[in-house]
Structures are given as C-alpha cells and as structure tokens.
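User: My instructor asked us to take a sequence, write out its structure as tokens, and then describe one feature of it. I'm not sure where to start. Here is the sequence I was given:
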Amino acid sequence: MRFPFPLVAALAVLALGQVRARADVSLHGIFTDHAVLQAGRPVPIWGRAADGEKVTVEFAGQSVSTEARDGRWSVRLRPLQASAEGRTLRVQGRTTVVLTDVVVGEVWVCSGQSNMEWPLSASFEPAADIAASANPNLRLFTVTKRRSPVPQTELDHAPHAWGAASPEAVRRFSAVGYYFGRDLQPALGVPVGLIHTSWGGSPAEVWMSEDTLEDNHLYARDILEPYVPSLKAHEAAMSKWRAAKAAAEAKGEKFNQGAPWAPWRPSELYNGMLRPLMPYAIAGAIWYQGESNAGRAWQYRSLFADMIRNWRCDWNQGDFPFLAVQLAPWDKNRKRSIADITAKPVESDWAELREAQNHVARTLPRVGVAVITDAGDKDDIHPARKAPVGARLALLAQTIAYGQKVESSGPTYASMGRSGSTVILNFNHSAGLKTSDGAAPTGFALAGPDGVWHWATASEISGSSVRLSSPQVPHPIQVRYGWDDFPVVNLVNGGGLPASPFRTDRFQGLTQR
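Assistant: Let's start with the prediction itself. The structure tokens for your sequence are:
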C-alpha cells in the first residue's frame, strides 16, 4: 500500500529530487575534502553535470571518464590500496572540482536510535578521551537529520563535510561510533572513516525501504496499515492544538503546550538519511537500536533480518558485516530496587528483543552482536558508559570483517545436560570462564515440567561448563540466564567479555502473536 501525505508536500519533495542539468560539474555531498574512500573494492564516484558533458575523475594514478546523462554522471575506480597519504581527487568537466587530503581505508556506517546518536560530550567522564582524540587517520562524517516520504538521492542541503577526529569534532559525534573507530583504527593500522546517520527514538521500520515493508503482508498489516489511523489522529490533535494556541494568543495569554509529536512514518529515515549514501563504498555497518521495537520483539526476529537484507541489497556490495549492540540493561519500572529485581524471575520484552538480535546473528551471515550486560544503567535508558560498547563492536569487526584472531565474544550457550536434579550448561567462547566479581554466578533460573521459574544456585564452574540446581525444581528441564529488562548477571570469559542472556525454553513470550 501507499500511505498518504499531503499532495503539495509530495510534489515539492519530488521536485527537489528531480534531476536538473547544471553547467558546472559537481560531486555528490558525501565527497568532500578529507574524505575516506573504501579500500579493496570498486569505488563509485558520482555527481551532476550538464547532459552530454564529458566528466573525468582522477585519483591515485587512475583516470576514468564518462558522459553525463539526465544531469547525472557516475564512474567506478578500480579497488584501491589503503593509504594514509592525503591525495587529490580531481573531477574535470567544463569546470573542475578538486578535493584535497583524500585517504583510503575502511569506511563504516554508524546508525540506530538515541544510544547511537548520544554524543561523546554527554557520556561517562569524557574529558580525557576528548582531549586525547586528535587522530588524522580517524575521520568523521555526520548526516543531517531528514525525514522524507520518498527516496532521496542527495543529502540534505545543510553543510556536510568529512573531518579528522579532534577535540572539537568528537565532542558532538556519536560516542559509540567514536569509541568504535578509536579502537579499530590502530588495530587495522589504516585510516578509518565513520559515517554517522541516526535519530533518537526511531523504530527499525523507518530505516527500511517501502518496497521491503510492502513485500511482507505481515508488515503491511502490522506496520503500514496502522500508520494511516495514527496519522489521522495526529492531524486531529494538531488541529486542536492550533485552535487552542490561537485562542490563547487572541486573549493575550501565554501558550506553553508543545505541539503533538508526529508518528514515525515507515521508511522516512531510510529515504532521507540512508538512501542518499548509496552506493558509497563501505566496509560495513554498526547498529544500536531496538528500544523502540521492544514491545514487538517477536516481530523483530524477521524485521531486523529483513532490514539487514534490505541494506545489503540496495547497497549492492554483498553481505557486508553488520554489527549490532544488544540492548543495555534498564529497568522500565525504575521503582524496583536490586532486591526487588532479584526477588523472582520475571517475563521481559527487553529480554525477548535481545533474543531476537541473537537469532538474527545466528541465521544471517556476517552479523555480530556486542553484549553489554555490564554497561547498563538501571534508571536510565541511555547508559553513559559508551566506551565498552564501541570497544566490543571493534572486536567484532576485527573477527567478522577482517579475520583477525582475537576473542570478540563473551560466553554463549552451547548445550545442556542433566544429572539428577543438577543441570550442566556448556558454553562456547568460554576460555577462562569465571565471574566478573569472584562471587558465585548469578542470573540463572530453572523450571520444571510445570513451567514455573525459580532462581538457581550455581554450584561449580568447571572448564567451559556451569552446574546449576534449585531445591524448588527437583526435575529441571529448562534454563534461563539474564532474562530481565535489567539482568543482574556476572558470568564472563577470561577476556572479561560478558555472557549473553539466553533461554532454552520455547514458552510463548510477551510479544509473540
């Protein structure tokens, strides 16, 4: 289905996106001085020029020519070797465009909602990291926020520019993105470029194309169709708001009521903030999102997977690495104490969302999930400690994208055995299996045939296994670990990487339909 929007606005947006012949040759807005071009794969370079104009691109000893058609031109450079040498990229048509200090390395897209958008300056004790941030081989690019009902090819008209990491640049940049790049760049020894495109509060479906959503009848039913009445309700609320504002102003009274928040329109950020980047050559993407989809966690199993497929298909660069951050611990109730949280096992849609993230990582190639059960904040959905998040994403990149021999995962559930009333759990990525605080393992629950959950006591860690039992569960058949909005857990491997929450049961969850 095609969802409605005012015809005049639609025509205006389409007009802005129409190809217009120009006398002067130009580059797409993603290409600026100090840019990072992707190493090791063909590099598209594109822009605008008058119809029929011959355009030649020169860089790193290559010279490629084409002719503009319908006001546009595009060429591909042969794969480039990584180089920190700042070189000139020249585009020659009837006029000339020259970019300086262009390097070649690894380019990553950083996207998601508020925890990806969260700036370094607002993170945990950032002063020292900001002061030490200068690095000419780590370069940053931020996409201006823009909603659009139709796919765009150009970036928003606000100024965009690549720039090297510096105290001034990083303080406003994504903290997770910065820490990821800070750790990845020296590990690779080549320039790293980060393209930040995120928006707080955004659900996954706004980062997907309309075609992808329409191709699945369940998305049409559960995402696209509900948008129509929500838009109408918003328009009605806006009408009342305008009337109340006008009445107050007519009386000379102050009017402090904020305008109603518009509902998220499916595909609008894909159209406005992601599609314009394609087909810029990239190494992969990091993604911190899910909070806005937790109430639909079961749907996220397919939605998240289809979003990744959507990006990979439209970028046309194969199955590039896609690295996600598992939802951080957070207590939605906020009134619970730690004693309340650990009083008894509970159901949790956030736990189900984490399970959905892990499910996608198991079923799609080159997808990883960074576990951050030790970096949450019980009372804040935006935990301030972003450095561990970026560091774990960088470890995943080293293994999944670059094949380096480093441990990038905490313990993950492998199998379960039973001996009488004792359960023996076996873990992968378990070298040096231990607890982070030296205490007994916490966060495990057992259930018997009745399906009632009770906290388990971990009697022993031996090699890659943990032994569990509970006096309330004489015949245990199922196990859960860290199954809570705010899991209180402490199992780690020798590298200090935390174990991922999991469950062995298949009981229907809160969000399963």
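For the description part of your assignment, you could build on this observation: The domain at 7-102 is CATH 2.60.40.10 (Immunoglobulin-like). Try explaining in your own words what that tells you about the chain.
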